[in-house]
Amino acid sequence: MAVCLAQLLYPGAARAQGRTLPPYRDSTLSIEARVSDLLQRMTPTEKFWQLYMTPGDLDDSTHDYSNGAFGLQITPTGTATGPAAARAHTERLNAIQRYFVERTRLGIPIIPFDEGLHGLVREGATAFPQAIALAATWDTALVAKVAEAIARESRSRGVRQLLAPVVNIASDVRWGRVEETYGEDPDLASAMARAYVGSVEHAGVVTTPKHFVANVGEGGRDSYPIELSQRKLEELFFPPFRAAVQEGGARSLMTAYNSVDGTPASQSRWLLSTTLKGAWGFSGFVISDAAATGGATVLHNTEASTATAAKHALEAGLDVIFQSSYEQHRPYLEAFLNGLIADSVIDAAVRRVLRAKFQLGLFESPYVNPDSAAYWNGRAEHRALALETARESIVLLKNRRGVLPLQPSLRSVAVIGTDAVEARLGGYSGPGIHAVSVLDALRQRLGATRVRYAPGPGRFKREYAVIPTSQLASSSNGHVATGLVGEYFDKIKLEGAPSVVRTDPSVDFAWTLSPPAPEIPLDWYAVRWSGRLTVPRSGVRRIGVAGSDGYRLYLDGKLVIDNWQKRSSGVRLVNIALPPGGSCAVRLEFFETTGNGRVQLVWDAGVVDDAQARIDSAVALARRSAVAVAVVGIEEGEFRDRAYLRLPGHQEELLNALARTGKPVVVVLIGGSAITMSRWLDRVDGVIDAWYPGEAGGGAVADVLFGDYNPAGRLPITFPVAEGQLPLSYNHKPTGRGDDYIDLTGAPLFPFGFGLSYTTFEYSALSITPAGIGADGAAVIRCRVRNGGTRAGDEVVQLYVRDLLASVARPVAELKGFQRVHLAPGEERELSFTVGAEQLRMLDTELRPVVEPGTFRIGIGSSSRDLRLRGTLTVR
Hints:
Shape: globular
Distance between the termini: 77 Å
Largest sheet: 8 strands, antiparallel
Number of helices: 21
Low-confidence stretches: 1-16
Structural class: alpha/beta
Number of strands: 41
Mean pLDDT: 95
């Protein structure tokens, strides 16, 4: 019966090992032939599900995957850790894969996908240093090893696609996702992209460079609209994506949330079809960012419906719709089934997905060995690689009077700061395997009695909290309930009958993408909350409102906050005497006229601002110690952009108080972006930037502090003196006047490429051979570098080019080569770089790539502002 059924379903099928198989099951045929055969057998519904990806599993019986799926992001269950967690993840994934292979009509396997920016984001996987730290190594060979390890751990579990790397240019360090990038320079980012993508793809795992394109907009805001010229995109933002596709071999790519020149990136025909699939020859598949396809409807307001958004996205070149849940598929499926999207458009996208599945060998080998996953995940050599990478990434920013390295004979060390114990790994991270904190590493090195700890004030200011449900009560129709009665009006005046009346547990709302209720306009409404407030035994000193203007707050009928105007957003607190245990009537009125309404009813009950006491305790500990190591950090992340780049909370006050003790103070920075330091830098003795150094990062920091490792990381971003200088990057084009302000220099605090060492390096003997070349020629540039100190160390030798006369304005400097070299004390080595058309090419006035004749200045040195050697190269 099975053979007859197969013959009915698969006419013309071949026979293999006594069974009748369709051509797409025949591994001896070409991939294109197999794709074509499978494609013509698929129903419209089956085609749709090959173009829909989502997190999920098979546990919910209401989720129907009988028509297949592109892939799933499977979250392991259980409490296993280490190799046992990897094994459990693999077994779960195998079981889910088995359903698709053995229980669906055509048996098309899924592509299990996951995040893997700097390690697979799963229990039991190695957590390497964050992406910005990888870039800070300036060591592409090392980054390739890290990527290979990530791919090995991922593939051994059955994960065959990683939503990484982020190759966006960090053009503004206020952006919360700088930590995920390879920095501000297209040459450095391209080199890192090639290293990561090439290694992962070679290991049989699909990479997904993201987010195409320019995911940071004005003000450093995440996914803000960009209105950039094609020249700007081609020169700055495209190169890492192009390198990942054309040289690294990326088989997938993710679009951005933002619009590009008025068109959502997921619908940009110029980006996806003309540029990516056309000019660059990309043959893989394009996925949207999570829920980005519908963003044209609810964010950009360029589509009337989700269905038409899907239609125009696929017509523009999007292949796969990535959503955050199974339930969100319905409007997209309807667009496929009602004929809105042409069959040729659908088939072209499905073909790209099926091609990848055949390339991955999923039809022949859909399952993986759990023993292999347990073997590779968290391997000792991977952890050693994580330590090596963390060491190489650390940047020494200041070392006054040689305070570093610290002497092992120190009688006592005060370690201060919550980041000393938290061992934060950064965004898009798994938990890591036994993450080592700075405090643990120092205690392991010196002993618990010599290393003492004080938390200090931490990264957060404790000023207020949302008033909890337990302290709010209201009465409606004779029924007493917790929370407040909310009356919602479809106008901005609290007049007439409300459109909606409900009891809200608390007032803690952010109506960003939707209105307070379906009956209420998104950007034109008013709300009145009323009820009673009970004061806790700790009492209340301040009460207020946080969020958008305007609002009014009444207590027992008395107006205590009057902010009935639309102007800004913020927090208003008033001092008020509310006796412990008492109660009072509360009424909060709020209106919104532009959308994105935010409102919280807050107070200071239970909030203890003990920052000064914590600072005093840390200072007392420092006074009793030989040296203070302050480990401080920042807050950032996806949709967590920063208006201020200073250390948050009371950490700056902490550093200044420590400096006043007269004891040596060494600062360890934890974070993935730039930090302003003008309020404290001159007062401390040493500063190192550890980024988010991964699970072995504490040990790496200890090794650098005590000189077991000589730091050689270099900044992949520019650190400004103040936010007013932003955006600030080294490779800007010449200005029409100058760079400075009347009250501040235009120069950075720390330039791109900067980093100190415990030794010194001397540069000499620059030669450029030949001194003149044709447009298609190349010159070899040589120099000698000598370690002039007494310690072995690495130097990152950087080559910059400036076009002295061109038909269009060119950057004042462009990184065009770099080498990280290890030198023993007194050792000298000759280094060489090749500079030719690839390094000298530019876009002319018609945006055509050309090498123009003229003179190019060549600079070699240890940062973009510290060029030790200079020469010229002439193009005839």
